[in-house]
Amino acid sequence: MANNYSMVAKTFFGFEEILADELRKLGAIGVETGVRSVSFTGDKGFMYKANLCLRTALKIVKPLRSFRVRNEDDLYQTVKKIRWEDIMSVDNTLAVDAVVHSEKFNHSLYVALKTKDAVVDRFREMKGRRPDVDIKHPDLRINVHIQSDICTISLDSSGASLHHRGYRSATNIAPINEVLAAGMLLLSGWDGQCDFIDPMCGSGTIPIEAAMIACNIPANINRREFAFEKWADFDSELFEKVTESSLNKVREFHHTIQAFDKAPSAVRKATDNVKNANLSDYIQLSQQDFFESEKQGEGKLHMVFNPPYGERLAVDIREVYSHIGNTLKRKYSGTEAWLITSDPDALKSVGLRPSRRIKLYNGKLESRFVKYEMYAGSKKAKWQSKE
């Protein structure tokens, strides 16, 4: 317990509870949800494991100090008092990111600049020279968060957002964020215990994340690097043990994952990405039009997909979503179908009554993640079109 410290996992709106659940299952203690964030406690090895395994986290930060801040001088002086020489050397590079929700501070770039000045000025006074700034690949990334008059200075252990899984080399016009895809799958209840389908797979993100969940493959196993690997106290042997232990928990998957798209270019990109993720044995890809397809077999089928919104893809929304409803109704009985859209009129065009609606954001677009239960036989009335 003596080696434990507080950390914060950042996420998308609507994913706080599932991220908290992920953390508890990994072994975190003191888990508490916030807004787009979850705080928890663990040791260095757990920080490594959280970055490697969490599916719905965007970043894992390690808070150094929280304090009340009234003005820019407060910020500068307090940051300057932190013993940065214990954390980095003058030969290291740094970058500062800032998020500000305050009446006293209204410019995040300025806050980042003042924080950077405080750090480098401390080194200049102590060592006679200062560390350089490297925005793209710093040795240390510092995170500043100001909420009202409370400022928290943290170390960013992740680096680039954790949605950069490392498997996606090719994308389409409107690719879905990997963390958003994983969160949708977890919200939908996907656990790998039945067949799965994404009938509008694009570059393959949803089926890839579905396969990784089904097989319990660490979310970021294909990622090239984490920021903590450049920290002065990085323990490579411990990280190898954490990685090996996580891989030992991978499980077999005894069902099928199908993914298809009517665009040949999308299928080619999805094929490349599935191969990059080492999941070719688990995902069946094909070029096919969803509206001309039908469910295969009699068992339960779990469907999650991201149809076009009309925001970045020019389509006739009413026609597309009307076809979605008709296809589900006529050809996919025994299916639990989930889709995400930012267009309320699109949902009306589906002509089916959703059994669940969850508010999410796809980028800056406020969206709804909705569930349609396509019953067969005596429960037919539950999915009939609304009069």
SSE layout:
Blueprint (H helix, E strand, L loop, with lengths): L4 E6 L5 H11 L2 E5 L3 E6 L1 H10 L5 E10 L3 H10 L11 E9 L6 H20 L4 E2 L6 E8 L2 E7 L21 H10 L7 E4 L6 H10 L21 H12 L9 E5 L2 H13 L6 E5 L13 E5 L11 H15 L3 E7 L2 H7 L5 E7 L2 E10 L13
Parallel strand pairs: 5-6, 5-7, 9-10, 9-12, 10-11, 12-13
Antiparallel strand pairs: 1-3, 1-4, 2-3, 4-8, 7-8, 13-15, 14-15
Helix pairs in contact: 2-7, 3-4, 5-6, 9-10
Describe the structure.
This protein is an alpha/beta fold. Helix content is 30%, strand content 25%. The chain has ten helices and 15 strands. Strand 2 and strand 3 form a beta hairpin. Helix 3 crosses helix 4, helix 5 crosses helix 6 and helix 9 packs parallel to helix 10. 40% of the residues are buried.
Question: How many DSSP-defined strands?
Answer: 15
CATH architecture of the largest domain: 3-Layer(aba) Sandwich
Main-sheet strand order equals 2-3-1-4-8-7-5-6
Q: H/E series, N to C?
A: EHEEHEHEHEEEHEHHEHEEHEHEE
Mean pLDDT: 92
Helical residues, percent: 25-40%
Superfamily at the CATH H level of the largest domain?
Vaccinia Virus protein VP39
The backbone outline, from C-alpha atoms, is elongated
Parts with pLDDT < 50 across at least 5 consecutive residues = 378-387
Query: What is the CATH topology assignment of the largest domain?
Result: Rossmann fold
End-to-end C-alpha gap: 61 Å
Strand content: 15-25%
Question: Major β-sheet, in short?
Answer: 8 strands, mixed
- SSE-based structural type: alpha/beta
H/I helix tally = 10
- Total discrete domains: 2
> What top-tier CATH class of the largest domain fits best?
Alpha Beta
- Overall radius of gyration: 23 Å
